[in-house]
Amino acid sequence: MVTKCCLCGCRAKLPTSGRNWTRRRYATISCRNRVTNRRWREYHNDWQRRRWRQRTAEKWPDSLVKCLDCGEKFAQLGTHVIAKHGYLSARDYREAHQLELKRGLTKGGYRRLKSKQVKITGNICNLEAGARYRFVTGDGRPQLANANRSRPVVMRVIAKVQAARKRKRLTSA
To answer: What's this model's pTM, rounded to 2 decimal places?
Structure first.
């Protein structure tokens, strides 16, 4: 027979007779619910994630991005790589896999959905207010102009320069 609550240690509220009084372990329903919620929290979180991924895959099949570390697909890859793979930021993940630094880790369908949500909720005002802090070429902030470029961006710029030189040679000849 249990004489005190397994969670809070309270003795006064435990019954000494009645239905199942010998097996009762918690003083109140809230104590019992707290223990039960702790026990099932991880399972419930995993269930929610699986359900959300399944619904996302059904609604926007083209909007999932595959993680290059584990192979799973996600709508927002940046939050996954920080939480599960130990990267300090999504930029570190992009640099490690030689991806473009300025391109987001989401696909078009999800990006359009988030764009609609921002406009509906009125958070677009926050984006417009932050426009004065965005980088503009030649605005007197050289530390931003000299930022390191990722390998795909450098290769794309080289290809454009080579194509321009080739066109110039063809037109001058």
So the answer is: 0.49
